[in-house]
Amino acid sequence: MVDRIGNCRILGEIGSGGMAIVYKAMQEPLERLIAIKALKPSIAMDSQFAKRFEREALFMAALQHENILHVHDFIKERGTMYIVMEYVQGIDLYDLLERTPRLPVEVAAIIGLQIARALDYAHFRGIIHRDIKPANIMVSRRGEVKLMDFGIARDDTLSDLTETGTGLGTPSYMSPEQILGDKLDYRSDLFSLGIVLYQMVTGRKPFVEDDARTVMQKIRLDRYTPPRKLNPSVPRALERILARCMEKLPVNRYPTTQGLIDDLQEFLSPRVPINYSARLVMYLREVGVLTDSEADEILAAGAPRAVRSANVDRGLVRSVAMAHGALLLIAIIVGGVIQVAHGRFSDDEASVGAEPSASVVPRGAGHLRVVVDPWADVYIDGQFVETTPIGRRIPLSAGLHYVKVQNPYYRTETRTVRIQRGRVEELSITLRAAAGANRRPPETPTP
Fold it and tell me: Is this model's pTM higher than 0.70 or not?
């Protein structure tokens, strides 16, 4: 092992892969811990691996975002290359799932939200990651989530290092179009993130190889088991988010990465009333990644000024946390009573087939009114609702919903509609005749 790289003193080896070795080091002029990713000497400097390694450094250096691992420097010396990076104390999601295969739904959603934010930042700059998987997601001891390893990322403005018709990535987390070697866009990353979210809340991957099919065949051709069948505690709102991410056709996924962020924020807002990083710190303590004293110290650093300025000891921090938890529990109980008293719909209770009361819009939901000319069968989020004309308003949970209308004599139409709490959205669709139609369709459906 080398002793020094540039102005950095090597402290030890963190890990090793097929292409690189990662060291922990001290950058002496700034007295800060850093990580150094070193290309293995056995890899030729003019090889495709070396070009990919250098491109990773360029990509990550250009992406300055709180949820993306920062690159401080790139060094060429001793016949090899080194990426000097931010050192993150924590655990990667792969190892976290080894400790606890199934995460609480709000913890999974927080991690998914932070990675979606990192991807949105990269996608806006024309960069597709192409290798979203648990091993490339880091959860720091302070509750920060970092996306790592842009080694096979692609920039739309640069040439691709992959030949046409070949795919790079990890098979279990690839999108269907990535498996086929098709041209990719940002929606491929959304599919991969959907797989990671599914794994976090169910404890297993949605597509697993068996004797009949390979994992890549299953991703392309098979449906996955609905998350709620594996974990009934998964809310329907989160199940819909996963389904939208893992649509086989890119056109049916979220139209923007920001759309996924909006839905995850909508999902988390009523469920996590505290700082998201603090919730992750609490979970790292629950699973033994942090000790009680370590977690208390981190949480105390983020506590209100009155607590920080006091001589905070472990007992005081724990008392504050317990008091906060007790107040939160009381609020949840009281909120539940109010919901029952007012007939309020929760995200999981609002079903597309329910009939709302008189003229009162439920506080926890919104409504959709659908008008189709001439008529059609209406499906919402893949579930049949009713055949138009529909006289009532359809109650739906707040967030994005996928609406499909079908008439055998006309072209099938699909729409995305955002439902807001306490509001009625109108959706009016005029159907177009199907290509090759040779007979006059009826004005109303046959009974």
Answer: no
